[in-house]
Amino acid sequence: MTATPLTVSSVIAGEPAPGTAGTYLSTNPSRTEEVVAEVRLSGRADFTAACRAAKEAQATWARTPAPVRGQVIANFGDLVSANKEALAQIVTRDIGKTLAEARGEVQEIIDTAEFFRGEGRRLYGQTVPSEMPDKQLFTFRNPLGVAAIITAGNFPVAVPAWYIIPALLSGNAVVWKPAEYSAGCAWAFHELLVRAGAPRGVVNLVYAEGEETFAGLEQALDEGLVDKVGFTGSSAVGVRVGELCGRHLQNPCLELGGKNPMVITEDADLELAVEGALFSGFGTAGQRCTSLGTAIVHESVHDRFVELLAEAAGKAAVGDPTQDVLYGPMINERFAERYESYLGWIGDHHRVLGSTGTGRIGAANPREGFVGDAEAGLFYHPVILDGVRADDRVFREETFGPIIGVASYTRLEEAVELANLPGYGLSCSIYTTDPAKAFAYRAGIGAGMVSVNNSTSGAEAHLPFGGNGRSGNGGRLSGVWVLDQFTRWQSLNWDYSGRLQKAQMEGPQIEAQPDFRL
What is the pTM (predicted TM-score) of this model? Predict the structure, then answer.
């Protein structure tokens, strides 16, 4: 049964905003004729207006005691938990993520809220001893002000939670611009936040296209309305956002793309490595920033690994995301078209494995064992590309889709060099039974996240998430580390001596006898 399409618009200061920039039809990528949401898009002026509304609401929210702010987060987690299946169904309908993965994504919100529900009672500063008598030193975490959060749609509810929950807990107000193609998810997420007790204007939702968002953000920064920008998306757009924020002496939190390597050593458990590669490379149809880019396999086990991986990919169920499949469709037409351009990077020296065809699955290009109606959606064959070289574009650039490259190495140092070569630094993995190799790899790799005998994908709510190089500017989400993104430290020194004491210029002096010898 086809659900009735939503009609959604931006929400600014608690009120729906009339769309001023046209309408976007968000469709179900597994059944592209089904409209999920009619999105009334806002323009740049609406984005700036939302920032202005957030600025007006933020001061009162910051004065709300932090434990009370934490209760809103607790309420939100409880509401998400109570609506877990419904929200997961919306995720699957919006972006084609399998129900199993969608449920896991919703659980990530619950876990994040669970972690932060008590953090309002632990926004600790420190009492620091002074070098002067009758004087005390203190530190405090203060909110920044207004956080503009711009998120991609491949994790349409988990990633926003990583930003918005700690931002609100810390006393900031939020303007959130989700991807328009995941509008239904954003609507549901915002509704739950409002029902959890988020005050009017503290969370503002803006549906807008990219260039309008950028122009609105630029104006808001010029007017001094935004104090922090959080952006998850492509590295190319991240560079533009970083440059814009730099003009205002702001340090954005940039979570960008990845070309995530998986090294498989000669002593690895190959069956386990294949299982990890299959999930890393093909989960969410390869549309994760943490998806496996290139498997870098020791030459002694290369052929066997490729054989096992090709066999596993060939047998994997692909298709209808509401069924038991490895992955479903591409998120929308834009990603499908871009992925087809990546397939154009396949060269004559590559060996293509993993399926009964390459490209879009359909009657003229069938996939053996496909689940559902291939003609109805944006479904693509899994691709294993053996023989990848370091100078291949498919090795050096992010390929957002169901494609895994395979390269060989001889020495571990060579594998580390290859793993670092593309210049991304988000996630990586190594499969080995030798702890020395695992620690040597960790020490040499530039990625922000390292897994041993596990996939390149996966995060936990209490572990820092983030990348370096082309993958980001070093900011971290999740756990206590994300609080540094949404608070600034303030120091206080309190002198109750009744006179002016000058640090470093006066104070108790200790006399020693440096010439003493036993």
Answer: 0.95
